[in-house]
Specification:
The chain is an alpha/beta fold. Helix content is about 35%, strand content about 20%. It has a domain at about 50-200: Rossmann fold (3-Layer(aba) Sandwich), CATH 3.40.50. The protein has helices spanning about 50-60, 60-70, 80-100, 120-125, 135-145, 180-185, 205-210, 215-220, 230-240, 255-265, 280-290, and strands spanning about 20, 35, 45, 105-110, 125-130, 150, 165-170, 190-200, 225, 245-250, 295-300. A seven-stranded mixed β-sheet has the order 6-5-4-7-8-11-10. The chain has a four-stranded antiparallel β-sheet with strand order 1-2-3-9, with no helix packed on it.
Length: about 300
């Protein structure tokens, strides 16, 4: 029998409002499950993995897990990851960064990986600093001339109040205490600075719209402590007492969704890009975002 939480780990609603969302955690233990709170909509892993287990996992195992899980070998090689993820992610993020990060801006990224996000910002005149647990990715970024430290412990009081923009992409869902994490980061922003981040949306269309059973087994995995909806993310950000906005985003394309529906497997991204025009892809993504059946959320905190 699965251990049961006594209350929601986010809003503290009582046990009666907690239910199992996913019974089998990919890469987890037999005792773990993802629970969902009917009050705030937060989805959380319980029992929680230990901090020591998490540190070991991200320092030496996470990249290998991701390569195996997604079938994307770029995860196992920093050079490939730098090149392929820059091509894939920058077009989605550049419209935000062009506004938030003008030349001369001071930028701090938590979970900076190979530095593929920070390098273009550095090249246009921003002062950048990355925080990355993985030895291989940290060393690679340093080789690209990007100052990168191993953890938040590498930031001293001289960094407080220094940064115009603080970035973290797909990090918040990995931390055990998201409110404490965000509260710790805010003092690094100067007055008027902004924090921007992305998290998976638990209303991903492959779950909420197409209901692909194989994707359910793939999606809920041990590396994530949390999954957010707009409602639960809004509840979390509201506790910071700062102005915030949440925007929908869609990363994966028609090809990826068709591939999942036909095969029950990942790996279909851009497979049919010779069929579907860029205009069709943009329209599809906008329809998903407008309906709420999209795969990620952008949060901006002032």
């Amino acid at each position: 029998m699965k251990p049961e939480p006594s209350a929601c780990l986010l809003c503290n609603s009582d046990r009666a409002k907690q239910r199992i969302r996913c019974n089998d955690v990919y890469g987890g233990t037999p005792l773990q499950a993802f629970w969902q709170c009917d009050e705030c909509e937060a989805i959380y892993l319980f029992p929680v993995a230990s901090g020591e287990d998490d540190t070991t996992f991200y320092e030496s195992q996470f990249d290998k897990w991701m390569a195996k899980r997604s079938g994307d070998e770029s995860w196992s090689d920093p050079e490939n990851q730098f090149r392929s993820w820059s091509a894939r992610e920058m077009p989605l993020r550049t419209p935000w960064l062009d506004t938030l990060c003008p030349p001369g801006a001071k930028v701090l990224e938590i979970g900076s990986s190979s530095g593929f996000m920070l390098k273009p910002l550095q090249d246009k005149g921003c002062e950048v600093l990355g925080v990355e647990l993985s030895h291989a990715y940290r060393d690679f970024a340093r080789g690209k001339g990007i100052e990168t430290v191993a953890s938040m412990d590498g930031l001293d009081s001289g960094h407080l109040g220094k940064y115009d923009i603080l970035l973290h992409y797909y990090v918040l869902e990995h931390v055990t205490d998201p409110l404490a994490f965000l509260t710790t980061l805010l003092p690094f922003l100067r007055v008027g600075g902004k924090m921007m981040f992305e998290v998976p949306n638990a209303n991903d269309p492959l779950i909420s719209l197409y209901k692909v059973p194989e994707f359910e087994s793939f999606y809920w995995w041990r590396a994530h402590h949390w999954y957010f909806t707009p409602k639960s993310l809004g509840y979390l950000l509201g506790k910071l007492g700062r102005p915030f906005e949440i925007f929908p985003g869609q990363r994966y394309d028609i090809s990826n969704h068709m591939h999942w529906l036909m095969t029950g497997q990942p790996g279909g991204f851009r497979k049919y890009s010779h069929i579907f025009s860029p205009e069709t892809e943009r329209s599809y993504a906008e329809d998903l975002k407008r309906s709420g059946h999209c795969d990620y959320l952008v949060g901006i905190v002032s």
